[in-house]
Amino acid sequence: MASVARPERAGQNRGVYVSTEIIAIVVSSAGVVVTVGVALFAGLAWVVRRIDAVESKLTTRIDAVEDKLVERIDAMGRELTEVKVSVARWEGPRPRLILGG
Predict the structure, then answer these.
(1) CA count, 13 A, side-chain hemisphere, 40
(2) DSSP per-residue string spanning 48-71
(3) 10 Å Cβ neighbour count for 40?
């Protein structure tokens, strides 16, 4: 039997069912997605590093301010106690409700 050559179809491009332009578009789109993903990851990593640095500086400052405030509050507490004692001495003893007699 004689072999009959089959003519190529215009849409098949030698066995490839997708045109080379479509393959190029898909590959370049994947490249863009990967590039944007890597850029977002790098940007987020930079932001996290920056936030950690700022957080450590703020922690140091807050601890210093907290120590000062604790000292000031303790000093105010001592001063308030002294004022209470002074007022109590100035007013004298409290009158008693039941008089002994």
Answers:
(1) 6
(2) HHHHHHHHHHHHHHHHHHHHHHHH
(3) 10
- Do residues 13 and 19 make contact, with C-beta atoms less than 8 angstroms apart? yes
C-alpha 49 chain-centroid distance: 10
Contact 42, 36 (CB under 8 A): no
Which of helix, strand or coil describes residue 10?
A: coil
Q: Residue 84: phi, psi to the nearest 5? A: -60, -45
Tens digit of pLDDT for each residue in 48-96?
999 999 999 999 999 999 999 999 999 999 999 998 888 888 877 777 7
Report d(CA 86, CA 91) in Å as an integer: 9
For residue 77, give Cα distances in angstroms to 13, 21, 48, 63, 83.
91, 81, 42, 21, 10
Phi-psi region for residue 36, left (φ > 0), alpha (ψ -120 to 50) or beta? Answer: alpha
Q: Taking the model in full, what pTM does it have?
A: 0.46
